[in-house]
Amino acid sequence: MHIISKHGLKFLALGLMAFAAGLPGMAAAQSAAPAVRIALIESLSGPFGNTGEAVFRNLVWATERVNARGGVKLQSGAQALRIERYDNKGQNEEALAALRSAIDDGIRVIAQGNSSATAAVLIDAINKHNEREPAKRVLFLNYSAVEPALTNEKCSFWHFRFDAHADMRMAALMDVLKDDKALKSIYLIGQDYSFGQSVLREAKKQISLQRPDVQIVGDELHPMARVKDFLPYAAKIKQSGAQAVLTGNFGNDLTLLVKAAKEVGFEGKFYTFYGNALGVPGVLAEAGVGKVIAVADWFPNTPGADSERFYQAFRQRYPKPQDDYVHMRMQLMVEALTQSIEKAGSTEAAAVARQLEKASVNVSGLAGAMRAADHQFQQPLRVAVMDRQGAPGVKFDVEGSGFGFRVIKTISQTGAEQPHNCQMNRPS
Questions:
Q1: Which of 16, 234, 242, 379 is the most exposed place for a label (fewest CB within 10 A)?
Q2: How far apart are CA 359 and CA 303, in angstroms?
């Protein structure tokens, strides 16, 4: 007969919670155990369901690592982190309904990011809710909604963005594009909503300032998540004579665009925000070598032993090639939340927010810090180009495609920083 000590029972319980955090079907069984619950409000079905599932995997992995070391440590006892899924089906109305459900379910931390339009309506709803019901205030953690206004004129004390906003990403891309001396013509295309509009607006501004010799031969917005056939758009791109395309498209809208461009024989470059995964490298294959440029906070081939071990650990956790899309910023976000709850000694939203404002975190040698003035996370940015796996600087491929991304430019944290016009109202 084996006797387990009280300490051993506690450790076993935490381990079970860590394991269960990654299994949504076990939510009911966990409900009795103390936990910091995070509501993921995201497109988990429909055209952008793959982007939502990629977020879910990243957040689950991040919480598992926190739980494996004992969870969130409070005086009342350690609590596990747990992700709970709310499918917004890509609709703002569904996202608002999910927010109400999450709050009614007792959740006080909301996570969302794969639409700036959705983020904007959530920020507005959370501001109103927190003012109306101070005893049930919630925090909003944003990992991907990069419309600049969200931390400028629409900034909120309750909202924290962990991704670089669109203007920061554009500046990083322009650091590479401006040195592409062979480039004389470019086609701008994006999704017709706040984010896509801001990308094209900033692209025109930056090209005019830094490469006035480059002719913009196309400037087009298309409906988001509703175009099934991008061949007409690709045909216009080819007919324009453009040597490159610049786009902020993501998910299926990006994959279908590059697929159509390949089919019509477009041989130019793609300057992208998100061209480094979710099917793009596999679709373009050899046609994308040296021609797809992407910007991100981190890439699997970011130099350094710690970065390499981090990526290999993720691939061990999610070995299927189609699951290969890891976001460092989401790992940093979960670490920042954990750190802030522990420093606040509470899960109360305002107390945690005041600590999040000054959070500084490091995961596997990759670091960042929150800027209190506007709640925009500050971190290095990297620009990378697609190449064959095994080429210098490309140890790892993407999604089993045989192609990966080599980092060609690193912008320091201070170099990536941009001014803001946030006038934040803070609770007394």
A1: 16
A2: 25
| Residue 355 pLDDT | 98
Residue 192 has pLDDT above 90, yes or no: yes
Identify the pLDDT of residue 34. Answer: 80
Length of the chain: 428
**50 contacts 316 by C-beta, under 8 angstroms:** no
Residues facing 142 on adjacent strands: 112, 161
Smallest CA-to-CA distance from 240 within 268, 263, 260 is with: 268
Token duo for residue 259:
């697929």
Arch. (CATH architecture) of 6-164+308-314+323-378: 3-Layer(aba) Sandwich (3.40)
Helix (H) or strand (E) holding 139: strand 139-142
Query: Which of 266, 211, 221 is closest to 239 using CA atoms?
Result: 266
Please state, in angstroms and rounded to a whole number, the distance separating the CA atoms of residues 263 and 232. Answer: 11
Measured between alpha carbons, how far is 218 from 371 in angstroms, rounded to an integer? 36
CB atoms within 10 A of CB 102: 21
Helix axes 49-68, 305-317, angle to 10 degrees: 110
% of the chain beyond a pLDDT of 90: 92
Query: φ, ψ for residue 33 (rounded to 5)?
Result: -85, 140
| Radius of gyration of the CA atoms of the chain, in A | 22
Residue 219 has pLDDT above 90, yes or no: yes
Tens digits of per-residue pLDDT, 315-336? 999 999 999 999 999 999 999 9
Please state whether the predicted TM-score (pTM) of the whole model is above 0.85.
yes
Average pLDDT over the chain, rounded to an integer: 93
Rounded distance, CA 226 to CA 232, Å? 14
Residue 376's SS3 state is strand
Question: Do 6-164+308-314+323-378 and 167-296+380-416 have matching folds?
Answer: yes
Superfamily of domain 167-296+380-416: Response regulator (3.40.50.2300)
pLDDT, tens digit (0-9, with 9 covering 90-100), for 309-319: 999 999 999 99
Residue 43 tokens read as 């497109």
Contacts with 177 (C-beta within 8 Å, 6 or more apart), sequence order: 183, 207, 210, 211, 244, 246, 271, 293
Domain ranges for the chain, please list them.
6-164+308-314+323-378, 167-296+380-416
User: How far is Cα 11 from Cα 30, in angstroms, rounded to an integer?
Assistant: 16
Lowest mean pLDDT among 14-28, 150-164, 265-279, 409-423: 14-28
First to last CA, the chain: 57
CA angle 54, 199, 175 (to 5 degrees): 95
Q: What is the DSSP string of 82-107?
A: EEEEEE-TT-HHHHHHHHHHHHHTT-
